[in-house]
Amino acid sequence: MRLDERRKTKDERMYKHVIASVAKQSRTALFATVLFLSASSAFAWPWSGSGEKKVSAEDQARIKDSLQMEEVRNLQREVDALTRIRLQKADSLEKLEAEHWRKRYAESQLTEEHQAQSRELDGRYSKLSTDLGRVSEEVMASKNMTSEVEERAQSDESAYDALNTQVKLSIDKTLGDVMGDYPVGMNGRLLRLRQAAGEADKKIPNTIGAVQGFMDDLLLRHEMTYTQSYGREVSQVGSRPDVNVNRLRLGTVFLGEVAQDNGDVQALLRSGALQGKIFEWNAALPPEMAANIKLAVTQASSGSVVSVPLDVLQNKAIKNTITDTKELTWDEELKAFFKKGGIVMYPLALVAIFALLLCLERFLVLTHRGHLGRRFMKKLNALVKDGHYEDAAALCLKKETSLSMVLFAVLNRARDKREDAERSLQEALLREQPKLERRMGLLAAMGTIAPLLGLLGTVTGIITLFTVITEVGTNDARVLAGGISEALVTTETGLVIAIPVMILHGLLSEKIEKVTSELYVQSTSLLNRIFGKVE
To answer: Are 18 and 81 in contact (CB under 8 A)?
Structure first.
């Protein structure tokens, strides 16, 4: 519609322009005709007479008619031209109108096709949107399910790894404890546990196989606890290897052997140690105990009920009563005492030696530099009284003690002002006092460190004690008390070291205070004697 209106407006402007051009041409022609006639009349007027005036009026009338006719013809031409233009315009308008309606029809057709296609596309878009939403939901559900499956798989894998690690740790711990456990069947236990550890250490761990091997070993070990056996074995009795013996085992409580050739007897007893071997063979039994064990093993061969001459607890106190003991020397007792304390006894020994050396060094230094000689002071006072300050200073240099160095600082400035002497005295005191107090802080630290090391050894020993009790178990309070007494050895040693060290530290500190006070007293007295006389 906007295109048709623009075309219509353009046609109207063109129509007005044509009419204006025709009108302009008509006015120009008419003006030329009138101008020509006027000129003709002007040229004819001087020569014409009165008769000619009448002709002139007629001519003027004719001219006027001619002009009117010319004007009519012009108007007719204009009308014809306008008619032709109008017809042309009408034809053009009809063509344009036809073209316009044809285009509108085509446009309507296109609009309908577009609307149809739009409706089709909208339908397809709606369907695709619905399908896309459904697919997106399915994808999200699949992703969530995949994430859950992955998380579950990772959790299961972590749990499996943790289980395998726990099984491996349990196997390794049991392997470490086998050497101190009941020795019967130890080789078979080590073989089974190492096979189980190998299954757990594979690139793809066989945790089930490791657990099965570990549980089989535990079941066999448990079965040994509640079974008994009697038979002939090849063993080592004392220092004799490969001896044929008769062996009687009652669970893991009693194991006795009697040599078939000479009747030597040995029994497997608890060692009483908190670490290392818990069981050990003992062939040094009292005669009565050996005879009872030999009788029990002999009677067991007939299948009768026997009495075992041992306490089933077999703790350390029982071991000492059933074994031949000998009295230890002082040196051996000291070594045994040192061994009971464990590894912490070594730093405690170093602390004791170092503290002793510090005490000796400080004692020697204080004895030398802190010496206060009466004869020296009498001789020095006599020289000062006589005014021989240079001789008194030379006497101080010969002694080389803290007191002599401080007095030398005063005597060296005896010829100067009192202020100079006081400054020199202060400098000498500041030099000498650190020499007297040197290493006293380190000695006090040694006295503090010793009981702390003893407490560390006690804590370590108690931890070891409870670890052994947890693994082996006991129902006798004497075992617990014995273990604690061994753990307290380091605390006792630390206190034995710390108490003398602190006493010596106090004595040395008191001696240092005495020497320092004497330095102040003697130096101030000398200063007053010298400069008091000068004033």
So the answer is: yes
Nearest to 319 by CA among 356, 277, 348: 277
Q: Vertex 47, ends 45 and 48: CA angle to 5°?
A: 70
Which phi and psi angles does 229 have, rounded to 5°? -155, 155
Separation of alpha carbons 476 and 466, rounded Å: 14
268 sits in which H/E element = strand 265-270
Range in 134-138, 361-365, 430-434, 448-452 the model is least confident about: 430-434
Q: Which of 268, 211, 192, 196 is nearest to 235 (CA)?
A: 268
Find the angle CA(283)-CA(288)-CA(291) to the nearest 5 degrees. 70
Q: Cα–Cα distances in Å, from 128 out to 123, 132, 133, 265?
A: 8, 6, 8, 97
The residue type found at 50 is S
Cα separation, 139 vs 82, in Å, equals 78
Report which secondary-structure segment, H or E, holds 436: helix 418-437
Choice between 274 and 355, residue whose per-residue pLDDT is larger: 355
pLDDT tens per residue across span 201-248: 888 888 888 888 888 888 888 888 888 888 888 888 877 888 888 888
Q: How many residues does the chain have?
A: 535
The residue with tokens 């290493």 is 439
| Tokens linked to 316 | 């350390």
Lowest mean pLDDT segment, chosen from 49-53, 246-250, 421-425, 449-453: 49-53
- Structural tokens at position 196: 């189980």
210: which residues sit within 8 A by CB, 6+ positions away? Answer: 164, 167, 168, 171, 196, 197, 199, 200
CB contact at 8 A, 210 and 167: yes
The Cα–Cα gap between 256 and 267 comes to 4
CB atoms within 10 A of CB 515: 20
pTM, two decimals, is 0.44
- Please write the tens of the pLDDT for every residue from 503-515: 999 998 888 888 8
The first and second tokens of residue 498, run together, are 């710390």
Is the pLDDT at 48 greater than 50? The verdict is: no
3-state secondary structure 375-414: HHHHHHHHHHHHCCHHHHHHHHHHHCCHHHHHHHHHHCCC
Query: Which two tokens mark 440?
Result: 């006293």
pLDDT exceeds cutoff 60 at 324: no
499 pLDDT higher than 90 = yes
Name residues whose C-beta falls within 8 Å of residue 447's C-beta, 6 or more positions apart in sequence.
355, 498, 501, 502, 505
How far apart CA 97 and CA 109 sit, in angstroms, is: 18
